[in-house]
């Protein structure tokens, strides 16, 4: 089945710093790739997605590029804000049922 | 268009009791997924259902846990004879199905077994 490896958290940054959260995956066939974000006490919500190789997903200043050759989908943001503090999940979705697969997530803490 | 609705948000059960968690998917969605989240462990897939059918239950414990998604009404995750180790946040997600579609999550049910 699918699996995902994300960098260990928490990632602690100062406001306006550059963010990278690494994600590599193994998947059956040709997956779609998603990043979800979870704010405290809430469910997950979609942040961005990419559905084919070299696609770049982007939303709210976050970006991630589908790299098929390295099976990676790293999340980046040029200038983080305190309000970006949350847990971020990379999720491939493939196979016959396209069940999203999640890992441990990466906690991001942004200080003023 | 209402989002995915889960209830209750918080549920306290004594050891040995039954827990019933409900999930109403988004309108038009026929695919439902249940996940369990423990602190520091991320989301673990439990079961995937379509209307009246269990498609994949590879993440469900073999005993005490069951799930259904009837033709009418919400999806139900049922945990019989709960134990302390069942304490977790349980999330439901729905989607219209298909390769490129995202899953929409509810706010979760936080089960505490005392």
Distance between the termini of chain A: 40 Å
- Quaternary state of this entry equals heterodimer
**Helix percentage of chain B:** under 10%
What's the overall geometry of chain A?
A: globular
Q: Name the structural class of chain B.
A: mainly beta
Rg of chain A from C-alpha positions? 13 Å
Instruction: Let me know the largest β-sheet of chain A.
Output: 6 strands, mixed
Number-wise, the strands of chain B total 11
- Total strand count of chain A, please? 12
Give the helix tally of chain B: 0
Overall mean confidence score, pLDDT of chain B? 93
Overview of this structure, please?
- The complex is a heterodimer of chains A (112) and B (114).
- Chain A is built from no helices and twelve strands.
- By secondary structure, chain A is mainly β.
- In chain A, the strands form three sheets. In chain A, strands 2, 5, 6, 10, 11 and 12 form a six-stranded mixed sheet that branches.
- In chain A, a hairpin with a 4-residue loop joins strand 10 and strand 11 (99-100).
- Chain A is globular, with a radius of gyration of 13 Å.
- Chain B is mostly beta strands.
- Chain B has strands at 5-7, 10-13, 19-24, 31-37, 43-50, 53-56, 65-68, 75-79, 88-95, 104-105, 109-113.
- In chain B, the strands form two sheets. In chain B, strands 2, 4, 5, 6, 9, 10 and 11 form a seven-stranded mixed sheet that branches. Chain B has a four-stranded antiparallel sheet with strand order 1-3-8-7, with no helix packed on it.
- Chain B is globular, with a radius of gyration of 13 Å.
- The model of chain B has no long low-confidence stretch (mean pLDDT 93).
- The chains are: A mainly beta (112), B mainly beta (114).
- The A-B interface holds A 1, 32, 34, 36, 41-46, 49, 51, 89, 93-94, 97-105 and B 4, 6, 33, 35, 40-45, 48, 55-56, 58, 91, 93, 97-108.
